[in-house]
User: What shape does this take?
Amino acid sequence: MDRAQKEKLVEELGQIFESSGVVVVSHYAGLTVAEMQDLRARARAQGSSVRVAKNRLAKIALEGKPCSSIADFLTGMTVLTFSEDPVAAAKVSEDFAKDNEKFVILGGSMGENALDRAGVSAVSKMPSREELIASIAGMLGAPASNIAGAIGAPASNIASIISTIEDKAAA
Assistant: This one.
């Protein structure tokens, strides 16, 4: 890899570190190619990405970035899992780590906040952006349906009373 390629890679990594909601650093020593492809496929399905990069270049790209605290985790064979959604990359990493003991989560960052192993686990248990949007939409729609039910209730109560009176009169 020549100098121009390294500079381009450092620039790409810098953009990843700036734009990602969460970055998870893991060791992947011993994983087969098929297992790495499985990790990449899971990440794509959740809207996150996986990147293997030289630690030295990643540390250069981290300089001056909000998540520069993860530089300590960049030793050995590391893989970066990242996403704009603050939860997706952590969920993918946690799920994959459950299935593969060779995949060891070291930590990560969420914006300027450094995450240890327990922090990544806690973030993975949070609801995703889509789940939060769905619950908010449900909460916004609930009062309108309650109002519609309350407005329609008196009319249906009157109709049932009249029906009961008619039934008694007919009998």
